[in-house]
Amino acid sequence: MSDRRPMRDELAEAERRFAHAEPPPAMDARVAAALAGERRPTLWQWAWIPVAAAVAVAAVLILSRSEDPCATLDGVAGPLGCRIEAAGYVAHVDQGPDARVRAVPEGFEVLDGIVTFRVEHRPDRAPLRVRVPGGVIDVIGTRFTVRTADGQGEVALHEGTIDFTRPDGRRVRPRPGESIEWGREALPTAPVDPPIDPAPATELPAPSPPSAPGTRAPSTETPTRVAAPTTAKRPARPRRRAPMTAPAPSPRSVSPPSTKAPSLDAALVDAARLRRAGQARAAVRVLTRALRRAPASPLAERASLELGALLAQELGDSARACAHWARHLARYPTGRSAPTVRARVRACP
Amino acid sequence: MLAVTDAQISRRSALTPTPEPMDVTRLYRVHRTAVYRLALRYGGGDEAFAEDVVQEVFLRVIRHADTLRDQDDLAAWLRRVATNVSISRLRRRQVRQRLPWRWMWSQHARAPRTPEVLADARASVRQVMAAVDTLPAKQKIAFCLYHLKGRPVLEIGQTMGHSKGYVSKLISRAEGRLRRLGWEPDA
Fold first, then answer.
1. CB of B83 within 8 A of CB of A59?
2. CB contact under 8 A, A11 and B148
3. Residue A233: how many CB atoms within 10 A of its CB?
4. B118–A38 C-beta distance less than 8 A
């Protein structure tokens, strides 16, 4: 038997009271006053609509501005990335989709992600400084890419000169095409669909000798200068690195891309190698062909981004770059790179 | 042929009375008690709640005077408006009673107030109405119309603007909730 209390009698009694309740006289006076003060609807009653519309437009503008990666650096979007004046330099900062960069008094600080800097040489000024988790980069006038995540990372010098100062004060000056790592060995990699064939690594030439006396072999504990690691050092480990982390051979020793259509991942590795070797047109061809063959690959968006960066930065072909950014945005309107590319499209003529 | 002759137009004009301006004062006199009692049920006997609902309902009458020409349907329209206004007010009241809001606005929990209409009722009646007051707004409205006012589910659906099935579900949920509180609505 249920131990619940029946409520029927109570409900009936409450209903009797409600059904015979009379409105208090004070209610009539109150309602009469309210009805007397009520006006018929006027146009002013709809004044909130334009106000709400204005607020909505402002919100959209603010949100779209916050989406602009250049806005956080107080820069202007351009074909080469954000054009920013910092510490007396004009720098073009090209941020990857998830990059986090902030301006500091002496230059920039890269907190996370992939960022490419292009800075014109100014002999009359102190070097622009870029802080990274593994040290400080003094920029003499150059183009280089920083890639960092979780305290690990690398700086890859494409051209010009930089000085990399480690936390313990040791200073390294890489040559163009070289990269310097810090943190542990494993760098964040992009997801890859097929298992990556280590073949591209075997195509690479033998390592060049260290570019400066005293350069040490790669280590997982300390910042490491990587000239061109041999495949013999890691024979059993498949290369799952993003293109930027690929070894950087000298321009003379770059092997041409395979005539067989490569996978998108291998194409990215090839393109990065060619880009470092100064063969940007070949890199564009490799990426274009690979994208045509595997447009639905998970790496396609990244490859497309890389292709646009090559067109804009390496070839300086703004028209092709702008057309490519527009196609990229149409194909990946909600992709991770969409905010960055949208800013570039807006900067196009 | 869809053409309408002048004679047809004049005959229609003669049959259709010219709408007269709505006398809100007269409407108020006629319907105020019914609306007040309905709101009193929804508010669990809270007179202030019922007065607020009556005032808002007749303010809406003024605002919609141009479209309220069908006098036969006015009572049903007033019931619907009173129900919608009550649901909104009950929801606002329930939100205000939630702890985070009280903390944000530095409001302390008020002791439950005995509704005036039930002030001299048996303690068990007040307990029952306090339990009904804990129901979500729509469940409370459906429960009150069904168990207090004794209206059929179909009519409740017309008043609330919901299907018969949804109203049955609301009533069933309300009953289940009250059972969990130790009351048996059907006994």
1. no
2. yes
3. 10
4. no
